[in-house]
Amino acid sequence: MKLNIQNTFTSELPADPITGNQRRQVAEACFSYVEPSPSAAPKLIHVSKEMLDNLGLSVADSRSAEFLKIFTGNAVLDNTQPYAMCYGGHQFGNWAGQLGDGRAINLFEVAHQEKQWVVQLKGAGATPYSRTADGLAVLRSSIREYLCSEAMHHLGVPTTRALSLALTGDKVMRDVLYNGNPAYEKGAIVSRVSPSFLRFGNYELFTSRQDAQTLKTLVDFTIKHHFTHLGSPSKEAYIAFFNEVVQSTLALIVHWQRVGFVHGVMNTDNMSILGLTIDYGPYGWLEGFEEGWTPNTTDLQQKRYRYGNQPNIGLWNLYQLANALYPLIEEVAPLEDALNQYRTGFPKAMIQMMRQKIGLSTEKEKDIALIQELERLLQEAETDMTIFFRLLSKVEKADTSNGLDLIKEAFYTPSELSASLREDWEAWFQFYGNRLQEEAVSDQERKKSMNQVNPKYVLRNYMAQFAIDDAENGDYGLLEELFELLKKPYSEQTHQEKWFAKRPEWARHKVGCSMLSCSS
Ligand code: AMP
Ligand code: MG
Q1: Do residue 50 and residue 186 come from a single domain?
Q2: Looking at the structure, do residues 424 and 471 belong to the same domain, yes or no?
Q3: Is the same domain home to 193 and 88?
Q4: How many domains does the chain have?
Q5: Shared-domain flag, residues 135 and 250
Q6: SS3 42
Q7: Residue 516 lies in a domain
Q8: Percent of the chain topping pLDDT 90
Q9: I want to staple 446 with a disulfide (CB 3.0 to 4.6 A). Which of 174, 182, 328, 359 is the partner?
């Protein structure tokens, strides 16, 4: 196995002088060296061919004994030194102090085809940042992260990637529902890959400790490697850096809203500085379109991280990052300006995205009313988001009077549509039809462009659970099937029509299908 190893993070940033994984507070350092814990009986379940390519590895490499050892914590590659990052974060709105990589261990950086990747193991044992937890991960949550991060990439949503999924052969104790019924589950490790795993929380921690020097070292490093075009360190570069993070965060969350993805735990330690989706925990996909939906049982009271609130939380989190960067800028106005760009830019970006979802290629003032009414109607009776937008592309602009009929499959209980709701829908289709008349684009072209932004297949919550149930029994066929299916989420895959279906009724309240806890 030949990799072009480069270790910029560990060679350019201050290290914790103490080694070993005893839990501790780590000051004035960006990371601690730490050894992965060996796995008892490691077994690879799946490898992403695309990620092998990205790193310059072959399928043969992935079948080697060395690959298995390295990606399950049983060996460390020569000339590399694994480490855990030190970061803090705001959790559910409160400053939580030092958090850090409690169960992620960064193995090395690889440079390949002019790209730089960090490779890390999730679930390979305790680090100084594990606090009261074990540093391990279970199979169900590892499958969820593995499948979803690759699926997101293929949906065109910025995300960290996944290279491999393996069983450790160890048993891990988890209390899935936090109700005092812990049980043993299969331990697993996902190897994750990203240009960087830096989070807002990495910067926040130093500011919270009034350590402006390490903050500056880390920001300079970030700009040098990930925002190279901003040039050498200066106040202007820091302001430009913040502006770029604001814009990439905005763009990321618009993508989430577009595909109906709910992250579930948008704490600032789960916000990537590169605007990537990071840390797949109790995430979920909208089935019925519902602004108030969250998959995370830990957040059911407050619903802070519900679908409709993700844009606001993005802004709230950016405020925390602005505070963290303030010591380097020492001026409020430019930070406020950047945040205001988000505040005013988000609604505009959302309208633009919704225009694309309903196939409008020009901009008219009335589109806002058209879209707002649609969002209201979608919530009046439970309507499957993915199916609705896909079917909507079948409408013909010459006559939209059959609109309701064309999309009726998207309703969970079509028979229960009230007469007045039907009327409202009919009126909406008329409004939509009139609006389409103002477009020069043909039905054919509109359908094509709509189908490029409205996925046909997403990783519905129950689909992941099916793959998990089979995998728990040693059958990985469905995992492979979904992995392949989700590589082409916008394509008609006629032999896979069964996955273009509403959530079955049994999955509505089933653990893992609609409700997930942070216990992973
Ligand atoms: P999360 O919100 O799941 O991204 O995790 C929040 C913090 O808890 C991070 O610092 C994680 O590294 C840590 N953490 C979560 N699960 C574990 C675990 N099983 N062992 C150690 N640390 C964990
Ligand atoms: Mg996290």
Answers
A1: yes
A2: no
A3: yes
A4: 4
A5: no
A6: coil
A7: no
A8: 94
A9: 359
Strands 43-47 and 161-174: antiparallel
Distance from Cα 1 to the centre of ligand 2, integer Å: 30
Which residues, 6 or more positions from 125, have their beta carbon under 8 angstroms from its beta carbon? 21, 36, 37, 73, 103, 105, 134, 135, 136
What is the extent of the structural domain holding 333?
201-355
- Which of 91, 129, 517 is the best mutation target for the ligand 1 pocket, counting ligand atoms within 8 Å of the beta carbon and taking the most? 129
SS3 state at 379: helix
269 as an active site residue: the answer is yes
Q: Are 265 and 90 in contact (CB under 8 A)?
A: no
CB-ligand 1 contact for 281 (6 Å cutoff) = yes
Reduced DSSP (H G I as helix, E B as strand, rest coil) percent helix, strand, coil of the chain, to 5: 45, 15, 40
Give domain status of residue 520, yes or no.
no
- Give the pLDDT confidence score for residue 45 in this predicted structure: 98
Residue 455 lies in a domain: no
Ligand index nearest the alpha carbon of residue 87: 1
Q: Is 258 exposed, middle or buried (0-12, 13-18, 19+ CB in 10 A)?
A: buried
Q: Collect all residues with Cβ–Cβ distance below 8 Å to 483 and sequence separation of at least 6.
A: 46, 48, 147, 150
Whether 321 and 385 map to the same domain: the answer is no
Confirm or reject: Cβ of 101 under 6 Å from ligand 1: yes
Tens digit of each residue's pLDDT (9 = 90 or more) over 196-252 = 999 999 999 999 999 999 999 999 999 999 999 999 999 999 999 999 999 999 999
Is pTM beyond 0.85 here? yes
Ligand 1 site-directed mutation target among 21, 99, 200, 280, most atoms within 8 Å of CB: 99
Residues 321 and 423 in one domain: no
As a whole number of angstroms, the distance between CA 446 and CA 431 comes to 17
| Mean pLDDT on 28-37 | 98
What is the C-alpha separation between 270 and 200, in angstroms, rounded? 8
For 105, the token pair is 């261990």
Last residue of a domain, one of 197, 216, 233: 197
Q: Are 151 and 489 in contact (CB under 8 A)?
A: yes
If pLDDT is split at 50, 70 and 90, which confidence band does 509 have? confident
pLDDT tens-place string over residues 463-484: 999 999 999 999 999 999 999 9
Report the DSSP beta bridge partners of residue 383: 411
- 398 and 437 assigned to the same domain: yes
Q: What is the tens place of the pLDDT at every residue in 58-91?
A: 999 999 999 999 999 999 999 999 999 999 999 9
Give the tens place of pLDDT for each residue, 428-449. 999 999 999 999 999 999 999 9
Residue 394 forms part of a structural domain: yes
Q: What would the mean pLDDT of 386-408 be, rounded to a whole number?
A: 97
Which tens digits make up the pLDDT trace of 270-289? 999 999 999 999 999 999 99
Residue having the nearest C-alpha atom to atom 18 of ligand 1:
135
Same-domain status, 176 and 272: no
